[in-house]
Design goal:
By secondary structure, chain A is of the alpha/beta class. Chain A is built from ten helices and 14 strands. Chain B is built from 15 helices and four strands. The chains are: A alpha/beta, B alpha/beta.
C-alpha cells in the first residue's frame, strides 16, 4: 500500500479563478524520500496542505497511510509530521519549551522519542533556553524539524525546508533527511532548488499546478531526448541572440556562465563543428562541450513542451 | 484534559513573557480609574457671561451681582451693545450674553413685567443647555425676590417649596456614576481586544497552522485561549474594585458574590465576542479595526456615559442588543444600590444568553481546515 496517494486532485482559489492544483495524481511508497520539485507558485504548498488535512480539495481524493484526507483527518493528524514553509513555532517560547509543548500536544514526551531527534537536537541543545525567535535561520529549521518529528510520525511532510537557508545548512539538512529515511519514515519534501532533486529517490516535477513527470531523477535525466551542449564565448549576450535567431536551434537558455543549447534534427552534431561554426560567425574565446542533462534542463524542456 | 493543561501553561507563559501587555493590563485599570472620573465631569461650572446693561439702574445692578455671586458664572465683560458682546462669543471668550433692556427698572415697577435677552453659544451642547437653564433659574429667583413682586403679587407667596434628596448617591457626585462604568470598560477591553488579537496573532505568525495539524481538539484550543483571559479579566476587575475603594471610597453596597457572578458571565460574553472577531479576520490590523468599530458602539451606546433612556427608540433597541448595556446597569445597581439577584436576574439571563450565543457562533465559525 502506498503511503501517500493523490488521485485527480484539483484545488482552486478565489472561486475558481486561480487554479493552484490541477488534476494531480501521484503515489509515494512507504519509506520513500519523495521530492516535489517546482518553482514558486507551482502548487507545492497546496498539495502539502491538502495532505496534512489543512485544505479541502475540490475534486479528487487524497489519502495518507490509507486514511482519507477529508473523512479520516483525525487519524492522519496523529500520524504525520508537518513542517510548513514559513517558520511557525512560537517565537516567544524557548527552544525547549516549543519542543516540550508539541510533544505534549501529541500525548508523548521528549524522552520517549529522543533517539529519533537526538542527532538534530544535539546541534541546537546549547541554545535550548533561547527564544525560538532569536535563532538563526538554520537553527530554526532544525528546531522545526525536531518539533515535526517529536511524536515519531510515519510520514513527514516538509514544505520547502531549505528555502532561505545557507548552503552548508542545506547540505546538513539533506544529510539529516537521509538518516531519517534509514529509520523507515516516509518523507515527502518540496523544493524550488533543482540541485536538491537528485537527492530524492523519486521526484515529481510540478509546474502551474500540473505534474509534468514523476520518476527517479536518473530516469528523468536519461529520458532527455536531445543532445545538449554547453557553450560560452566572450560576448555571451551576442551569442545568445545569434543562437536564438538561428532556425536550427531548438532551445537556448543561460545556465550559469554557459548557455545550454539543443538543435532540431542534428543527432550527429559534435562540439568541434559547433565551435568552428561559431568562430566563423566572429565569436571569440568560444568553448563548447557536450554535456549530460540536469534536472533543470529536463524541467525547462518539459515546461516548454507543455 | 491533560492537553488542555499544557495549552494553558503555554498561554500563561506567553502572557507573562510579553512585558508590555502585562504592564498594560495592570496599569490600565489603575490609571483609567484614577484619571477618568476626575476629568470626566458633567457638572457645569465657570460659565462665562458677557453682560449688556442698557439700563444701569439699581435693579439691573442687583441682577448682575446675583448672577455673578451664584458660583456658576463668571462675568467676563460688560459691553455697551449686544453686537459687541456677541464678539466675545465669536472669539469663544464668553458662553452666554445677558442683555438687560433700557428702562428695565422703570418698566418693571410700572408695568410689573420686563423681558431679558439670553443668548447662548450652543457649540458645546451640554454646557449651553445647563448654563442657559442655570441662568434662567437665577433670574427666576431674582424675579421672586424683587419687592415689586413680593408685595404687589400675593400669589407669589404661595409658591411650592421643593425639598429633594439624591438616593444611592446623596451628593449626586459624578464619580459614583462613572467609576462602575470604567470597571465595565476595563473588562470589555481586556476580554474583547486581547482575545481577538491573541488568536489572530497565531494566524499571522502561522503557528495556528502547526497547531492545526496536531490531534488537539477544537474545544481544547478554544478553551486554552478563553480561560487565561478570563482569569486576567477577573484579576483586573478585582484590581479595579480595589482602586475604586482606595481612591474613591466606593465599596459595593451589594454582595461581592453577585458582582463576581455577573463579571464572570459578562467576561464569557466579551471573550466570545473577541473569539468571533478573530474567526472572521486574518491579521491583527483587521481584528483591531473590527473590534474597535464594535467597541465604539458599545462604549457610546451602552449607557456608560449617557443615559440609555434618553436615546431615540431605535438607538435604545441597539443598546439593548449589546451585552455592555446590561452589565453597566447591573454593576451600578449592585455597587451603588445593593440590588440582589432577584432584582437583576433578567439581566443575568441576558448575559448568559450573550455568552452562549457569541461563543457558539465563534466555535461554529472556527475551522481547523480551510
Amino acid at each position: 500500500m502506498s503511503a501517500v496517494i493523490l488521485d485527480h486532485i484539483t484545488k482552486t482559489y478565489e472561486n475558481g479563478k486561480v487554479t493552484a492544483v490541477d488534476d494531480v495524481s501521484l503515489e509515494v511508497s512507504p519509506g520513500e524520500l519523495f521530492g516535489l520539485i517546482g518553482p514558486d507558485g507551482a502548487g507545492k504548498t497546496s498539495v502539502f496542505r491538502i495532505l496534512t488535512t489543512l485544505l479541502l480539495p475540490e475534486k479528487g481524493t487524497a489519502s495518507v497511510l490509507g486514511f482519507d484526507c477529508v473523512k479520516n483527518y483525525r487519524e492522519i493528524r496523529n500520524r504525520v509530521g508537518y513542517m510548513p514553509g514559513r517558520f511557525s513555532l512560537y517565537q516567544d517560547l524557548t527552544v525547549a519549551e516549543n519542543l516540550h509543548f508539541f510533544a505534549t500536544l501529541f500525548g508523548t514526551t521528549i524522552e520517549e522519542n529522543y533517539t529519533l531527534i537526538k542527532d538534530i537536537y544535539e546541534q541546537i541543545k546549547p541554545f535550548s533556553n533561547r527564544r525560538a525567535g532569536k535563532l538563526s535561520g538554520g537553527m530554526k529549521q532544525k528546531l522545526a524539524l525536531c518539533c515535526a518529528l517529536i511524536h515519531k510520525p510515519e510520514v513527514l511532510f516538509l514544505d520547502e525546508p531549505t528555502t532561505g537557508v545557507d548552503v552548508v545548512s542545506r547540505k546538513e539538512f539533506w544529510a539529516m533527511l537521509q538518516q531519517l529515511k534509514q529509520q523507515g519514515i516516509t518523507i515527502m519534501v518540496s523544493t524550488p532548488y533543482m540541485d536538491e532533486a537528485v537527492l530524492c529517490e523519486r521526484i515529481a516535477l510540478i509546474q502551474a499546478g500540473r505534474i509534468m513527470s514523476v520518476d527517479t531523477p536518473e530516469k528523468i535525466i536519461d529520458t532527455f531526448p536531445a543532445q545538449l551542449f554547453a557553450v560560452k564565448a566572450a560576448d555571451i549576450y551576442r551569442l545568445l541572440t545569434d543562437l536564438r535567431n538561428d532556425p536550427a536551434t531548438e532551445s537556448c537558455y543561460t545556465f550559469g556562465e554557459y548557455l545550454h543549447i539543443t538543435f532540431r534534427g542534428h543527432p550527429d552534431t559534435n562540439p568541434q563543428q559547433l565551435q568552428e561554426w561559431l568562430e566563423q560567425r566572429g565569436h571569440r574565446n568560444v568553448a563548447v562541450k557536450q554535456i549530460r542533462a540536469t534536472i533543470e534542463d529536463s524541467f525547462i524542456r518539459l515546461m516548454n513542451e507543455a | 484534559m491533560k492537553v488542555l493543561r499544557f495549552i494553558l501553561r503555554k498561554e500563561f507563559r506567553q502572557i507573562f513573557r510579553d512585558k508590555t501587555i502585562l504592564a498594560m493590563m495592570f496599569a490600565m485599570p489603575t490609571i483609567q480609574l484614577i484619571i477618568l472620573p476626575l476629568a470626566m465631569n458633567f457638572d457645569v461650572k465657570h460659565v462665562k457671561v458677557a453682560v449688556v446693561d442698557n439700563d444701569h439702574s439699581s435693579y439691573s445692578r442687583q441682577l448682575i451681582a446675583k448672577v455673578g455671586a451664584s458660583g456658576y458664572f463668571r462675568i467676563v465683560a460688560a459691553m455697551p451693545s449686544v453686537r459687541e458682546a456677541m464678539q466675545y462669543i465669536e472669539r469663544e471668550q464668553a458662553d452666554v450674553v445677558l442683555e438687560i433692556p433700557p428702562a428695565f427698572e422703570q418698566q418693571l415697577i410700572r408695568e410689573g413685567k420686563q423681558r431679558i435677552g439670553v443668548s447662548v453659544d450652543a457649540i458645546n451642547g451640554t454646557k449651553a443647555a445647563l448654563g442657559g437653564s442655570y441662568l434662567v433659574t437665577v433670574i427666576g429667583d431674582f424675579n421672586r425676590q424683587i419687592t415689586v413682586n413680593s408685595t404687589a403679587d400675593p400669589a407669589a407667596a404661595n409658591t411650592i417649596a421643593i425639598t429633594f434628596s439624591n438616593w444611592y448617591n446623596p451628593l449626586a457626585e459624578y464619580r459614583f456614576y462613572i467609576v462602575p462604568a470604567i470597571l465595565v470598560l476595563l473588562l470589555t477591553l481586556i476580554g474583547g481586544f486581547l482575545t481577538a488579537l491573541n488568536i489572530v496573532r497565531e494566524k499571522e505568525a502561522g503557528t495556528i497552522e502547526q497547531i492545526n495539524v496536531t490531534p488537539i481538539r477544537k474545544w481544547e484550543f478554544i478553551l486554552g485561549k478563553l480561560i487565561p483571559f478570563w482569569v486576567v479579566g477577573i484579576t483586573v476587575f478585582t484590581l479595579g474594585l480595589a482602586v475604586a475603594w482606595g481612591v474613591y471610597g466606593i465599596w459595593p453596597v451589594g454582595s461581592f458574590a453577585l458582582l463576581y457572578t455577573f463579571a464572570a458571565a459578562y467576561l464569557l460574553a466579551v471573550l466570545g465576542f473577541g473569539l468571533l472577531v478573530s474567526t472572521y479576520t486574518d491579521n491583527q490590523l483587521q481584528a483591531m479595526f473590527v473590534a474597535f468599530f464594535f467597541m465604539m458602539i458599545f462604549m457610546l451606546m451602552s449607557g456608560l456615559f449617557t443615559a440609555v433612556e434618553s436615546m431615540p427608540a431605535w438607538a435604545r433597541a441597539i443598546a439593548h442588543c449589546t451585552p455592555v448595556t446590561h452589565f453597566v446597569k447591573v454593576v451600578r445597581m449592585i455597587v451603588l444600590k445593593g440590588s440582589t439577584f432577584a432584582d437583576v436576574q433578567y439581566e443575568f439571563y441576558i448575559l448568559v444568553f450573550f455568552a452562549l450565543a457569541l461563543n457558539g457562533w465563534a466555535i461554529l465559525n472556527y475551522r481547523k481546515t480551510s
